[in-house]
Amino acid sequence: MANRTSEQALEKVIRILEEQLAHSNQQNEQLTNQVEKLTQQVQHLTKMLFGSRSEKSKYNVPEGQGSLFEEEENPFPLSEQTEEQSQQVVSYTVVRKASKRKRNDHFQEGVETEVIHHHPDQLTCACCNLQLTEIGGTIVREEAEFAPAQLKRIQHMEHAYECLHCKADLSTPSKIVRGKAPQPVIQRSLAGPSVLAKVLSDKFTLYLPLYRQVKEWARYGLQTNDKNLSNWVINASNQWLTPLYRRMIELALNRTILHVDETTSQVIHRSDGKPASSKAYNWVYKTVPCQGPPLVIFQHSLSRAKEVLKNFLSGFKGIVICDGYSAYGDIEGISFANCWAHVRRYWLKADSKNGRMGVDYCNRLYQLERKFRTMRPSKRRRMRKKYSKPILDDFFKWIENGHFYGKNAIATAAEYTLKRKEALQRFLHDGRIEIDNNPAENAIRPNVIGRKNWLFSVSEAGAQANAICLSLSETAKLHGIDFYAYLKKIFTDLPTMSIQQQSERLDSFLPWSPEIQESCKLR
Q1: SS3 of 111, please?
Q2: Which residue ranges of the chain lie beneath pLDDT 50?
Q3: Residue 367 belongs to what domain range?
Q4: Of the residues 431, 455, 481, which one is the last residue of a structural domain?
Q5: Are residues 214 and 335 both part of a single domain?
Q6: Lowest CB count within 10 Å: 9, 48, 256, 313, which one?
Q7: 139: enclosing H helix or E strand
Q8: How many whole angstroms separate alpha carbon 274 and alpha carbon 269?
Q9: Comparing C-alpha atoms, which of 472, 437, 483, 470 is closest to residue 282?
Q10: Cα separation of 440 and 297, whole Å?
Q11: Cβ neighbours of residue 111 closer than 8 Å, sequence gap 6 or more
């Protein structure tokens, strides 16, 4: 009996020890995974802090690439950078691209030329005192001269006339006629078309904040403040630019392919009751060149929710090219094509043998895309089916057989890729679809640069005005239009037109119209 009791006690001790051992093993495994994850994070952050920002791969360089000092243009341009990423960093890249020799400064065609002649002080011969004869001249140098802008006060005076003969005849009612001044851009404001055009152009092409423009206007002789300038931007946008903006949205939604992306902004006085430190968002929509004149549309929103995208794309039927954000998906009538540049970045973060293999698969796809870039959409689709699809099949098969589990960078990259398998293959079936969403990311950069200078919008009206102006500015840039000349024409011509009754005339004020191309084209 005693032996049996001792055996039971011994078995109990053994069970307790086994449970403790299993618990310890589980803790060790968790700690090992945590250490691995933290080590990868430290490596990634160290690379971000001290390493190269370029996404150009240094692994598996294909044969026949050419000299190391004559690298091809990087096919993976960086996406939108944060303020921290914009700082200068130390790069440890040994082989650098040889810098191309820059052209000397030169004048554009059409610049007015003034010749200053320099003659000798003495025009008589020092030997015989006879008059000297000119035998030629030499241009010894050219230099640029800048004439500062000049501000004028324009007073519109309406003159009244009457017929004195009819006035003397008491049986005939006297008639008075009066000259009619053109309608102002903004009622009861000093801002004329050229002033408004310069304010908006400096803000949305030079990214010059309004409070800095105040000092510049004071130097020209106009005393104002940033609040007045802000009201000018809002009023001009609401009254004259909004009809063009809505027309551009209508045309964009009639297309069947759109690039979409979003970035943060800040609004101080929000209508949703959230604090000023909460994030607002600017969405960007860009059309593809093969479907007509390219368009860039910015949309301000306080939210990043799917409803924002769904409401904006109401009536749109087609394909949206985007990143892997969860809002992009499950919208009736819309198919989503995901971005391979984002996939590549995930594998690039996993700085290991498997990570390099994942990057290599992506590089092979991009090498093919460079060859297909100039092909017609139909031919590009056929070539993708023939050459790109086998690479994709091998890539997904490799991931599925790799058994990448855990919370490390490799497992994250594998999960991100497999989760979007269908959307990542959509570019195979339509030659008009780009392999990545870089066009949208490049289009949204002006908003990021502006955000860094403007910092925030005081009101939602100001944020919406920014979106409208950026839409027109970036679309005008795509069509080679001088944004200042374009705005000046809009603010001069539209107030004299009845836009509500002549909405069809708006198309003649879009950046690609022949009239705008003729009068506002950059030199």
Answers
A1: coil
A2: 58-98
A3: 343-431
A4: 431
A5: yes
A6: 9
A7: none
A8: 9
A9: 470
A10: 10
A11: none
